[in-house]
């Protein structure tokens, strides 16, 4: 039974044997614990702290249970900050000891131990070891006295330190160099660019990620730096009375040349522009230009890190000033004459005769020709053009600023019109407009010859609109406009010619014949009249009917509506309405018409018996006279005249004119001319005086019809 279990366990454990391992008798084992301890462990804390030079030992202990008598082969690995630093294979069960003799700061870190037996491994907990204390660095220089720019060698040592170390060198408190090495000493080359006493020391830092530990300062070593007996010299000729265009010679050299292995370089420059370079002598020749009040030159010597410079400043007098370009006349019109004048205002007369100055106009495709020194004339273009001129003498050329000439279009004679409609008694807008002309244009509204107002039109879509009010229609024609876009005058516009619309007033309805004298069969005429400006729309109404009886628009101030043969059905109350573009509707007073029975009917009813008797008597008489006289005579005696005027002409003759005294709308009062749809207020040959009280709804009367 026990043998069976053993065989089973053995079969399971065999899975831990790596493939290809030596074929040996399989051993049963288990790693029970792995621990790491630091010795000495002065304060007994988890993370020991030791001082520099302590002999530290890391002890790794593994507790393993196994089935055989001999110890199993164990592989120990020590990790510091995650990377393995030590590996040992042991076939004894003794602890592994990892010595850190005379510990240094660089030994600080997190340690861990791992044990591996036949592919099965276990790691310990990690322990953080801290080692304190760094050695004092030592500085050594190979020279105590150097000249400017000369190199010396400095060595800084960190005695006994290990690890990755940063070394720093200081001149007094200022850091002058740093170097990172993986050893405890470094050598650097130092140079000093200023003469005098320099106090040098060094220090170092040990890097233990993520921390760093800084040492104390080293001993201080004094270096004496002697000034180099070498300096740059700058010569400029001439130095006085330098005019633009004069030749300037510059020479940059060394004052004394001492034996020196270093390479020397000279740089000659003007402002930020490098003119020339060389090793011992730099020559430069140039034409002086008055780019500013003065010219500054520098001769600079460079020897390794050392540099010295010499400077000179020269003032250069302008030979002639930058030319100015002017245009005349001040306002240029398209295709009209213009002149450009180019001139340098000041000239150094001791060097230059004004006559030597040559002026040119650019661009070359400009439309002007030279007509004198610096004077260019011609016709202005039809578009904006940029001109520049140049003045030139003794190889010096100066350009004026660009002058943009914008030729104008003269404003055309303005037109004046009413904007919208002119209604008497309401504000009226007047528009002034010129078809051509460069903006801005000033429009002035005049009344008579008095200025009323000014409008400035600056943008293409702007309009010069003035608002006025008038009390009489004829006042409108006193307005006119002036337009101006330059100093040139342009004729004013014509006088404003526009119709003033007078609102309608005084509506009247005139009935012919008189409303109380209308009989059946009469020709009834309803005349609607107003005062105001045509065209007028008239509408006639009968009270009780919504729709108008008729309506019409006419260029007259009155209009008629006719009922050729009235009947009793036409009795009723009538009124009319009128409209024009100035205002809404005006309405006449109402007129009531009562159509009476025709006279001849009464006569017929009253005298029909008498008539029959008379006819009988007459018949007897006829028979009696026939026997005595001819038939023709008898027939002539029997004809009867019509009793009612039928023609329009005869009706017209019955119309009368109302007098001014009795009827207010004098000029609008209608003269009925008897023809359909026409009325005039002019004179007519056959006009009869009107009856009074027309406006109150009374009527003209027709002559007695019977
Ligand atoms: C450290 O060990 C060395 C010999 O390995 C010994 O000379 C030295 O005295 C020891 N230091 C201390 C502080 O025990
Ligand atoms: C350098 O200067 C010398 C005189 O000092 C002159 O003869 C020579 O032409 C100059 N060279 C240049 C490049 O200016
Ligand atoms: C003139 O010059 C101005 C700038 O100075 C530029 O904006 C403009 O377009 C130029 N006009 C013409 C017609 O070249
Ligand atoms: C137009 O009127 C403004 C003031 O309203 C004035 O400054 C400007 O000079 C006038 N322009 C012309 C061409 O008269
Ligand atoms: C006013 O304008 C009308 C046409 O609109 C024209 O018949 C008339 O002659 C003009 N009057 C004047 C004074 O120009
Ligand atoms: C108005 O009268 C005219 C004649 O005067 C006639 O031709 C027209 O048909 C009438 N219109 C209406 C709506 O009665």
Automatic annotation (TrEMBL):
Superkingdom, taxonomy of origin: Eukaryota
UniProt keyword Metal-binding present: no
Ig-like domain sequence ranges: 42-130, 414-497, 507-592
Region (Disordered): 646-706
Keyword Transferase: no
InterPro entries in UniProt: Ig-like_dom, Ig-like_dom_sf, Ig-like_fold, Ig_Fc_receptor, Ig_sub, Ig_sub2, IL-40-like_Ig
Membrane spanning stretches: 603-625
GO molecular function, one term: transmembrane signaling receptor activity
Cleaved signal peptide residues: 1-19
Alphabetical keyword list: Disulfide bond, Glycoprotein, Membrane, Signal, Transmembrane, Transmembrane helix
GO CC terms: external side of plasma membrane
One GO BP annotation of this record: cell-cell adhesion via plasma-membrane adhesion molecules
Biased composition (Polar residues): 695-706
Protein name as catalogued: Platelet endothelial cell adhesion molecule-like
Species in which this protein is naturally found: Salarias fasciatus (Jewelled blenny)
